[in-house]
Design a protein that fits this description.
The complex is a heterodimer of chains A (111) and B (113).
Chain A lengths: L3 E3 L2 E5 L4 E6 L6 E7 L6 E6 L5 E4 L2 E6 L4 E6 L8 E8 L8 E2 L3 E6 L1
Parallel strand pairs in A: 2-11
Antiparallel strand pairs in A: 1-3, 3-8, 4-5, 4-9, 6-7, 7-8, 9-10, 9-11
Chain B lengths: L2 E5 L2 E4 L5 E8 L6 E6 L5 E9 L2 E4 L5 E7 L2 E6 L8 E8 L7 E3 L3 E5 L1
Parallel strand pairs in B: 2-11
Antiparallel strand pairs in B: 1-3, 3-8, 4-5, 4-9, 5-6, 7-8, 9-10, 9-11
Classes of the chains: A mainly beta (111), B mainly beta (113).
């Protein structure tokens, strides 16, 4: 079942913060976040495996609330390079279970 | 190092014509391979995946098919394309078999006219 992402789109000015949410009606074993630049392939950002886990690099971080079956991606002090479409993907309890992706959140950062 | 290649990068095909998209992975063995399609408003839709030679799982009933003739080769085909087959086709392999992270190829953009 496809996870639901919100918002569908967001426009930010450089330096502003944003939160992208991902929720599922099914139990989540893992949540993957990817970013896709226009016309390019999605690129892996991070994976969260455990409830309560938080991760981040640079100014992009994510959290995973296993009980609520939700994950959030936090973009802090956004830069122009953050523009793109962000996808969350939900996995099963095995690495062989294919990821099911949400419809994506289009993020546009303007100067 | 591991790489993944797709071709062709772009193609324009008439309705009813056949299709063959190829994907190869280098630098690894026995990868799990996936075909996703990206159409407007639908995000990344899983089409097929394969955990080994000759093993194909289909996620969406359609006029597409997939084959894995060699360990590191994954092919997406159609005998007769429909307008609705237009989209951006992405091949991927999971570079971490335990947790399933994906690395995507460059993609093949198909326009059916």
């Amino acid at each position: 079942q496809q996870p639901v992402q919100s918002p569908q789109a967001v426009i930010l000015r450089e330096g502003e913060d944003a939160v992208i949410n991902c929720s599922s009606s099914k139990a989540l074993y893992s949540v993957h976040w990817y970013r896709q630049k226009h016309g390019e392939a999605p690129v892996f950002l991070m994976i969260l495996l455990k409830g309560g886990e938080q991760k981040g690099h640079d100014k992009i971080s994510a959290s995973f609330n296993e009980k609520k079956q939700q994950s959030s991606l936090y973009l802090t002090a956004s830069q122009l390079s953050y523009s793109g479409t962000y996808f969350c993907g939900t996995g099963g309890h095995s690495g062989n279970t294919p990821l099911v992706f949400g419809k994506g959140t289009r993020l546009s950062v303007i100067a | 190092s591991q790489t993944i290649h797709q071709w062709p990068a772009t193609l324009v095909q008439p309705v009813g014509s056949p299709l063959s998209l190829e994907c190869t992975v280098e630098g690894t063995s026995n990868p799990n391979l996936y075909w996703y399609r990206q159409a407007a408003g639908r995000g990344l839709q899983l089409l097929f995946y394969s955990v080994g030679i000759g093993q194909i799982s289909s996620e969406v009933p359609q006029n597409l098919s997939a084959s894995r003739p060699q360990d590191r080769q994954f092919i997406l085909s159609s005998k007769k394309l429909l307008l609705s087959d237009s989209g951006f086709y992405l091949c991927a392999w999971n570079f971490n078999r335990v947790t399933g992270e994906l690395f995507f190829g460059e993609g093949s953009r198909l326009t059916v006219l």
